[in-house]
Structures are given as structure tokens and as C-alpha cells.
DNA sequence: CAAAAGCAAGAGCACTGCTCACATTTATCT
DNA sequence: AGATAAATGTGAGCAGTGCTCTTGCTTTTG
């Protein structure tokens, strides 16, 4: 009634309330996610917590899947930010330290938000297909950090020897001169495996070679496997999870970083 | 009425029917699992498919969790058998071939039964805690196969150099003489990480040393990470999944197998 | 000021896991 | 053989879920 125009900008009291409710829904959803887990996420329960009737929540969130998508995007951001902030405090030339920061950053984030981690890297939620146009880009954020580390490692000439992993260097030159895998195994076609990735805009500017990217993927897969294994308890009761992770993290790091600080080809 | 005793042995018609129904339930449950996924498993739907009333199924399966446990144990058996049969066809002295057989065995099983794989290695089913006394032993079956491979590899003197992974050999001797991890990283305490495992009856007879076990765990974690990543699509659309898996499998194998078929300490 | 758009509320549908009381069938004991 | 006990089938019912639709009310907008 007596409200003048200056205190009622285009975002009117209605729009403001809507934004507040939407945010509140996300907050409550995150709380439920943290305590109950993803599949137990109930729109009705959220509505109840917010003091609104069950059907009312559909004014703010289209469906349960929509809510999940928002949480996923949110979690990707959260994890990437956690990893990034852990990574950025170590000096750029401390390559090993940066790797360890990435690994520990991801792990401690996962331990702190196990359900969020599950949402991102666990089995897909039933009857839910993540929309690639919304979860695609945020999903690569933490991998992108790892890529910059691989690039810097290569630039510093400290990239580990691909032969150590059974990945031949010659496979990049000629396509039919494939490298023989671990002692008489069949062929490993590096270019087929990771070549198309390198043509991706995300990598094109880095000038990475297939072997280096493959090494990076090994490190990433091993790291993610280590965290997954711990969060999901796949190895049963582990006596000293910290020590075990340290071992796996070190091993994963050694796939991209030469261990002794010297270029791989030196004696 | 005219049935004589010879056609009615101790397993009477009632027990036989019960066994049949229980088996049938598992069959239908597996079918639902394959088509709908784990979280969509509905006892009512199964009962409906079996032509019995919804409450009737509780005469045969205690609860939904009980059904899940049976499926999980079943899947562990199925996967272990798949891996084992793939592994057993390659000659015992072809160590690399055995590793590849294990990896491919697990992967093809997972690709053929994605929901079963999810049940075992995906995010835990909400509100379900796997009873360790029933899922514990079957869960280690395929890992056990890998352990025998590591043991045989050591016996053949073809174990990869632990230093390649940044895992020092001296950490087994003195406890405070810890190995420095990748270039100036903190300590890696191998004994703390895997020592207690070695005291386990499963390993005690093998005489494995901590470094070798750690290498095995690296291989396992990387392998499982690779399969998980593919089944769950964690890397987005991969151009050539077979080639990528080949790369990761080879890399994982190189953590336990010396690449050139020679003992690690030779020039 | 009136029309339009946004919102809260409630009823309702189809589904879930699970329990309970009741009737029927089968196995076992006397 | 007959009584008794155990196992099995049936249907109703409770509390919960996602989601839709209609009915009124409030805020914003022309």
C-alpha cells in the first residue's frame, strides 16, 4: 500500500519470495541428501519440512529428476571448488604436491559429503538420466584441473615414461606399428583410445600427445577408484584407510610423474 | 490318495514346491533387476508376475533386503565364476595372459550384466546394509583370483619393481625408515596400509610382502575403476571403449607385471 | 480497477513395503 | 484313522511415495 517504487524494483516481493523458496528447497534437499541419501529424496518430505502442502512444491521444482539435476550440478561445482582450492595453495612448480593436493582434495570432499559423491560417481539413480547439456560441463571441471597438471608436468619435462605402463611411444607415429602390451599381450592402440579426445576443444590447445593423456586417464581412474572403493567400502573393513589411500595416491601419481624428479630417459 | 510311499520321499510335495517357488522368485527378480534396475525391485511386482497375491511373497522372502542379499550373493558367484572360467583357460605360466583374462572376464561380465555389476560395485542401495556374514566371503572371490596371480608372478620372479609406483622396498624392514613418495611427498607407510591384510588367513599362507600386495591392490583398484567408469559412463561418451579399456588394463597390469619379461633389477 | 498470472490447498490415482487376521491345505503325532 | 500342528494362500489395511487436477486466493500487470 504505502510502498513506494524505490523499494519495489522489478524483482517484486513475489519474485523475491520465489527465489528464497527455491533456495530453501535446495538447502533442505541437501540436508535430506546428507542424512538419508539420494534415493530417499522425497519431494513430499521436503515440502513437509518447508511447511507447505505436498503438491505445492511442484510450483518450484518441476519434478524429482529436476531436483536431482540441480543437486548434481551443485555437487559438481562444490567438488571442483574443493579440489581447486586445495590445488591452488601449492606452488605451481611443486608438481607432486599439486597431484597430492588434487587427490586429497577429492578424497576429503568425498568423505565429508559421501552422498554427494555417490550422486556424482556412484551408480546412476534409477529412472534418472542426467541431462548432458546441464551436467556435462560441470562434470569435467575437476578432470580439467588434472589435465593442467599433466600439461605442466610435460612442459617441465618430468612426465613419467609411458613404457612404464606398457604404453609404447611409437604408437603415435604409425598406426599399424602398435606397441606390444605387457609381455606378449595384444595390441594397444593409443590413438584409437584417446585420439578423439585430443581433437576435443578441451584438449586441442594443450598439445598433449596420446600417451600423456592416457597416463592422465590412468591416474584419474586409479584415483577415482581409490576414493570410490573407500566411500563404498568395497574392500570390506580396511584397517588404515588413510595409509591405503596414500599408497594408491602415490601409485596413481607415479603414472604421470617421474618418481625421482629427473627426466625419464636419463640413467 | 493312491500315492504310495515310494513316490513321496522325505522331500514331500510341499518342500519341493517351496524350493521351486523360491527359485522362481529369484529368476523373476533377476529379470526385473536386468530390466528395471536394483532400486526399482518391487516385491509386489514379483508376486504379481508369479500370479500370487502381494502379501503371499512374504512367505518365501523375509523382506526386500533379504531378496537383495540373495541377489548380491548370487551375483558375486556369477561374476567370480565368469572371471575364473576366463582365467583358467590360459596356461598358468602366461602371466600377462592371465591378467588380461581376469580383466576382460570382469569387464565382459559387467557389460553383460550391468545391473548386477551395479549391485556389487555401485553405490550401496539406500537403507540396505549388506550383511557381512553372507556377502563377505563371496565378495572376495574374484580378488582371490588376482591374489593367486600376484603370488605366481612373484614366484616366477617377474613382479614389477615397486619403486616404479613410488612404493619403497625398505618400508618393510624398519618402520620409521619410510620411503619418500613421489618427489618430496610425505611418507608412505606400506605396512600400516596393507600389513593387517597380510595377517589375514586369506593371505597368511601366501607369504606375500606388503609391497607386492600393494601392487595387487593398485591393479585391482585401477581395473575396477576402469570397468566402473565405463559401466557408469563417468567419462561421458567415449569414442572407442574397447581401446580405452585395453589401455587401462595394460597400465593396471604393469603395476604387478614387469613389462619386458625380465626381473626388475636387471638392466 | 479489472484481467492475468502466480500460488496455496486439498482431493485423488497408482504405486511401494509390510502387517495382520482369516481360511485352506499339507504334514505329523497319537 | 483322527486330532493337531505347521505351512501356505487371501484380502484388507496402514503409511509412505511421485504426480495431476480442480478450486479458491493473492499478487502483479495492463
From TrEMBL, chains A, B:
Pfam families documented for this protein: TetR_C_33 (PF13305), TetR_N (PF00440)
Keyword Coiled coil: no
Any one GO molecular-function label of the UniProt entry: DNA-binding transcription factor activity
InterPro entries named in the record: Homeodomain-like_sf (IPR009057), HTH-type_TetR-like_transc_reg (IPR050109), HTH_TetR (IPR001647), MT1864/Rv1816-like_C (IPR025996), Tet_transcr_reg_TetR-rel_C_sf (IPR036271)
Keyword annotations: DNA-binding, Transcription, Transcription regulation
Xref: Gene3D superfamilies: Tetracycline Repressor, domain 2
Domain HTH tetR-type residue range list: 19-79
DNA-binding region: 42-61
Keyword Ribosomal protein on entry: no
TM ranges: none
Protein name: TetR family transcriptional regulator
Amino acid at each position: 500500500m504505502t510502498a513506494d517504487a524505490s523499494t519495489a524494483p522489478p524483482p517484486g516481493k513475489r519474485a523475491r519470495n520465489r527465489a528464497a523458496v527455491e533456495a530453501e528447497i535446495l538447502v533442505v534437499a541437501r540436508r535430506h541428501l546428507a542424512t538419508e541419501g539420494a534415493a530417499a529424496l522425497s519431494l513430499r518430505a521436503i515440502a513437509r519440512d518447508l511447511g507447505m502442502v505436498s503438491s505445492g512444491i511442484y510450483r518450484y521444482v518441476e519434478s524429482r529428476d529436476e531436483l536431482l539435476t540441480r543437486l548434481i550440478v551443485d555437487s559438481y561445482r562444490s567438488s571442483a571448488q574443493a579440489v581447486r582450492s586445495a590445488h591452488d595453495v601449492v606452488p605451481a612448480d611443486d608438481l607432486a604436491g599439486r597431484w597430492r593436493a588434487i587427490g586429497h582434495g577429492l578424497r576429503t570432499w568425498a568423505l565429508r559429503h559421501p552422498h554427494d559423491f555417490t550422486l556424482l560417481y556412484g551408480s546412476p539413480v534409477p529412472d534418472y538420466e542426467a541431462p548432458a547439456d546441464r551436467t556435462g560441463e560441470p562434470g569435467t571441471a575437476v578432470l580439467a584441473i588434472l589435465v593442467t597438471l599433466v600439461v605442466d608436468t610435460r612442459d617441465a619435462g618430468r612426465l613419467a615414461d609411458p613404457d612404464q605402463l606398457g604404453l609404447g611411444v611409437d604408437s603415435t607415429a604409425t598406426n599399424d606399428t602398435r606397441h606390444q602390451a605387457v609381455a606378449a599381450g595384444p595390441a594397444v592402440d593409443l590413438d584409437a583410445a584417446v585420439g578423439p579426445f585430443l581433437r576435443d576443444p578441451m584438449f586441442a590447445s594443450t598439445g598433449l600427445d596420446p600417451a600423456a593423456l592416457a597416463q592422465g586417464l590412468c591416474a584419474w581412474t586409479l584415483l577415482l577408484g581409490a576414493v570410490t572403493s573407500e566411500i563404498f567400502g568395497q574392500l570390506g573393513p580396511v584397517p588404515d584407510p588413510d595409509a591405503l589411500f596414500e599408497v594408491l595416491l602415490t601409485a596413481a601419481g607415479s603414472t604421470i610423474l617421474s618418481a625421482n624428479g629427473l627426466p625419464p630417459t636419463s640413467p
